[in-house]
Task: structure prediction
Amino acid sequence: MTALGALIRRDIRIALRVGGGALIGVLFFLTVVVLMPFALGPDLALLARLGPAILWIGALLASLLTLDRLFTADAEDGSLDLILMSRTPLELACAAKALAHWIAAGVPLIVATPVLGLLLNLDGAATLAVALTLVAGTPALTFTGMIGAALAVTLQRGGLLLAVLVLPLSIPVLIFGVAASNAAVEGQLSFSTPFSILCALSLASLVIGPFAAAASLRHGLD
Amino acid sequence: MSLSELANPTRFLSLTTRILPWLAGLTAILLAIGLYQSVQAPDDYQQGATVKIMFIHVPNAWLSMFVWGVMSLASLGTLVWRHPLADVAAKAAAPIGAAFTFLALVTGSLWGRPMWGTYWEWDARLTSVLILFLMYLGLIALWRAVEDPSRAARAAAVLTLVGAINIPIIKFSVDWWNTLHQPASVMKMGGSSLDRAFLIPLLVMAVAFSLLFITLHLAAMRNEILRRRLRALQMLQASKPVALPQ
Result:
């Protein structure tokens, strides 16, 4: 247990420092959300209607950007080899790294949501709904993205290929996240149905992600 | 000849050299019969002659999902049993599956215009097949991104198995969601609801397309084996010391 705790603490510490990538993710989230009104026009009613979708796409792209560094940074300086050789199961080590990534990069996105909701003219209920769905959905994004990150370690220039591999797997999370947010705003369809499916997706990815990532790392680096 | 005996690439090449012409001939004959039956089939009372796009569209759609299943089995062969030709099978099948998916989307789109009034609709069936197409393209990109084919094989095997979740989603999407695409009418509990005049040509075309896939797949596997041999020879050639001129 202490080995995993040390791994989580180390990852969070590295991510929060300069060049770590956690706060860059929030900055990218802000940039994407700010770009949208330039493209869509300043019509506040339209922005409020599209607000949950814009916030979700921004969070998806921001977490994709920070996922690139999840394993490649460790592969570059050799710590990934140490993790592979250690006695803790690789699946648990991958889960620990993903948890650290979510704490360092996913939670700041959720914290930034109320501020950005203000920019998009979302009212309090809508912002709360989007924040709740992000709390339920960003673990799914991190843990399924981890599969792509592990596959991308075997490549020299992972980058764009990582995005192409991870995005189809993230589409269900996006669909249900936006559906739940819109349901909370409009009030005609139920909020709990898509929200529970979103939670189910997150829980499923908590199990499948580490196993698939560990299999990729084991096979890709020998 | 069991799978373990076929693991020898040379034996595989000699076997396919013998059977591939026969497979190709059988495919051509069945395609000809199927196309003739499709042309002879009656017009639908509602759709007229455009219903005959179904005889091309549906086999393409069935095969796009079937090929991902074949690739998943091959990926299991790579990861679990370490079968030497499993990764060759998986790599060869990916572009063929992508082509079937693309044709299914295009023929479906052409059929949708007269039938639904639109070339595209974001309903569950069309969206999940489009995602399948993107996943095929991502898989092909992953194969090409790693220099060494056997390392690429293991990464691609994991991605194929993770993406296999999309296949039941596509199959049941018309039942789970309110879609514009029609619900299942051939493969469902209680037997098919398609009239025999349409069901027979459809099944003949489906068998013909499956044989087409097997023929193309075996030919592509042969090409991949030869390509790897060529690569090994080139690397051997490149590692020889160069004789400097005196």
About this structure: Chain B has seven helices and no strands. The interface with chain A takes residues 79, 131, 134-135, 137-138, 141-142, 145-146, 151-152, 154-155, 157-159, 161-163, 166 of chain B (CB under 8 Å).
